[in-house]
Amino acid sequence: MNKDLLSILDLSADELDVILGEAANLKMLRKAGRPHEFLKGKSLAMVFEKASTRTRISFETGMYELGGHALFLNPSDLQIGRGEEIRDTARVMSRYVAGIMIRAYHHEHIEEFARWSSVPVINGLSDREHPCQIIADLMTIREHFGKLSGLRLAWVGDGNNVCNSLVLASALAGYDLTVASPDRFQPPGEVVERARAAGGSVTLVREPGDAVADAHVVVTDTWVSMGEEAGKAERLKAFSGYTVTPALMRKAGPEAVFLHCLPAHRGQEVADEVIEGPQSLVFDEAENRLHTQKALLVKLMGREIGGP
Ligand code: CP
Ligand code: NVA
Predict the structure, then answer these.
(1) pLDDT of residue 60
(2) How many folded domains does the chain comprise?
(3) Can you tell me the mean pLDDT for 67-84?
(4) Is the pLDDT of residue 120 over 80?
(5) Mind spelling out the 3-state secondary structure of the chain?
(6) Is 184 annotated in the active site?
(7) How many Å lie between the centroid of ligand 1 and the Cα of residue 76?
(8) Is the same domain home to 142 and 246?
(9) Atom 7 (ligand 2): residue with closest C-alpha?
């Protein structure tokens, strides 16, 4: 296992499979009220440059339930906000905590942290990827369909960080992904090429109807990600016609499910009837952030780095 999780492709297919299995196990233990303090006495530093509900609460609660502790750190309260270098901060933090989770505007900042940190670094969302979200999404899909391989997934909307991790994970999980987005908002070419080079099946189309036809899973995300607020008007215009509506879900068929990482904007990327409808698994998906994060934390922090 790699020391860090910066990209979903830091995991192998087998490691992803193990994490999904352990997440299901941890979910069972929690529901049965059985203790699972696998990280007793360990601390996780959580650095958030951007807002968060799910990522913060699931990591913080997850560490508590594993017998450990999490520190919420706002960069403006750290010396990093006054110019202390990442390479110094990362080395200092590594002397105190067993792992570091970072949500950052620039993916390169997380890479720099990982380069200088001697403890595992986890990407809690960057401008490039959101690997933790996709592990939870895959758990949710596997719970529902009992498998990932051979399924047809459709992404409708912005080819952004969450989409990128879903594109890359196709190389690990064996599903076929079709992405429908306006030309300017397709996932970056290098991400698609990387996924295909690793064995992923990714098709890019423009029309949402072409992506969702016969899909098992329809996924979307906000049209205006954190940090992109300046382009909001242009984006709302470009994405008109990309709302996941009941009519679009009908093209996928009655067995299809709907996923959204949340927060959602009803009337923009998704219609209220879809997110509140019987095909929506969004709250199971949000819950699974907790179980998958715990599994990931145990995998990354539950042993000595460099140990057996
Ligand atoms: N899906 C997700 O990462 O949500 P938060 O921004 O609330 O953490
Ligand atoms: N694409 C969204 C995901 C939020 C969890 C963003 O980056 O804001």
Answers:
(1) 98
(2) 2
(3) 96
(4) yes
(5) CCCCECCHHHCCHHHHHHHHHHHHHHHHHHHCCCCCCCCCCCEEEEEECCCCCHHHHHHHHHHHHCCCEEEEECHHHCHHHHCCCHHHHHHHHHHHCCEEEEECCCHHHHHHHHHHCCCCEEECCCCCCCHHHHHHHHHHHHHHHCCCCCCEEEEECCCCHHHHHHHHHHHHHCCEEEEECCHHHCCCHHHHHHHHHCCCEEEEECCHHHHHCCCCEEEECCCCCCCCHHHHHHHHHHCCCCCECHHHHHHHCCCCEEEECCCCCECCCECHHHHCCCCECHHHHHHHHHHHHHHHHHHHHCCCCCCC
(6) no
(7) 20
(8) yes
(9) 225
Rounded to the nearest integer, the mean pLDDT of the chain is 97
In a domain, 238, yes or no: yes
pLDDT above 50 (res 308)? no
Question: Is the same domain home to 143 and 194?
Answer: yes
For atom 7 of ligand 1, the residue with the nearest CA is 53
Mean pLDDT on 160-184: 98
- Kindly give the number of the ligand 2 atom that is closest to the alpha carbon of 225: 8
pLDDT at 247 over 60: yes
CA of residue 118 to ligand 1 center, whole Å: 26
Q: Residue 306 has what pLDDT? A: 40
For 174-225, write each residue's pLDDT tens digit.
999 999 999 999 999 999 999 999 999 999 999 999 999 999 999 999 999 9
Ligand 1 center to 28 CA (angstroms): 23
The answer on 165 and 214 residing in a single domain is yes
Instruction: Residue 118: give the domain boundaries.
Output: 8-130+289-301
Residue 303, pLDDT score: 59
Closest-approaching ligand to the CA atom of 227: 2
CATH number where 278 lies: 3.40.50.1370
What pLDDT is stored for residue 18 in this prediction?
A: 97
